[in-house]
Write a structure and sequence with these properties.
GO molecular function, one term: cholesterol binding
InterPro entries: StarD4 (IPR042555), START-like_dom_sf (IPR023393), START_lipid-bd_dom (IPR002913)
Distance between the termini: 41 Å
Organism: Cardinalis cardinalis (Northern cardinal)
CATH architecture: 2-Layer Sandwich
GO biological process, one term: intracellular cholesterol transport
CATH class: Alpha Beta
Shape: globular
CATH topology: Alpha-D-Glucose-1,6-Bisphosphate, Chain A, domain 4
Order of helices and strands: HEEEHHEEEEEEEEEH
Radius of gyration: 16 Å
Number of strands: 12
Structural class: alpha+beta
CATH superfamily: START domain
Pfam families: START
Number of helices: 4
Length: about 210
């Protein structure tokens, strides 16, 4: 088990990585799923043998409120159907923490419940916000869970210039679920989970 990292350099490196993902040209992405709420693309990850996913959709609300529903805090558990528990293990400053959370089984439990310990950081980006995270090897793994690992991932949320009450939400996710899983099952689950994330978030914001 590693000790907790120094948050400042990790936060800076994480932000730079996400900004780099955000500048990847359209030609490198392949569409994985399209719904009325979001489009999901993917490309091979540079971090592990799976994919880096990009999800994007317009959400009707202001940037701060959307990010408050996504980042670690009281809202997330209320609406995110995949997340089953969340504990803040350590808070470094207002926008920086380490959290442990668990996810429900997926695909008729082919994918068993997972546990993650993530460093989370929220910062300003252009006229909006970036909330990003990366998994840490920290804390004991609880029984009945497989410990998954999130490579650098995050959500950019910026107001639409011609419609300030709407925001463009763009996510980059690369999750290594670990355990003995067929890659095709993981890929199917990831695309659907990201598309559902947008529809669930929109319902929560309207509630």
């Amino acid at each position: 088990m590693d000790p907790l990292p120094n948050p400042a350099p990790l936060a800076s490196k994480l932000r730079n990585t996400l900004v780099r993902y955000h500048s990847i040209g359209d030609g490198e992405w392949r569409v994985a799923k399209k719904t009325k709420d979001a489009t999901v693309w993917r490309k091979p990850s540079e971090e592990f043998s799976g994919y880096l996913y990009k999800a994007q959709g317009v959400v009707e609300d202001v940037t701060n409120r959307i990010v408050d529903h996504i980042r670690p805090g009281p809202y997330r558990l209320d609406w995110d159907s995949l997340m089953t528990s969340m504990d803040i293990l350590e808070t470094f400053e207002e926008n920086c923490c380490v959290m442990r959370y668990t996810t429900a089984g997926q695909l008729w439990n082919i994918i068993a419940p997972r546990e993650f310990v993530d460093f989370s950081y929220t910062t300003s980006y252009e006229d909006g916000l970036l909330s990003c995270g990366i998994s840490l090897d920290y804390g004991e793994v609880r029984p009945n869970f497989v410990r998954g690992f999130n490579h650098p991932c995050g959500w950019f949320c910026v107001p639409l210039k011609d419609s300030p009450g709407h925001s463009l939400l763009t996510g980059y996710i690369q999750t290594e679920l670990r355990g003995m899983l067929p890659q095709s099952a993981v890929d199917t689950a990831m695309s659907s989970t990201l598309a559902n994330f947008y529809s669930d978030l929109k319902k929560a914001l309207k509630a």
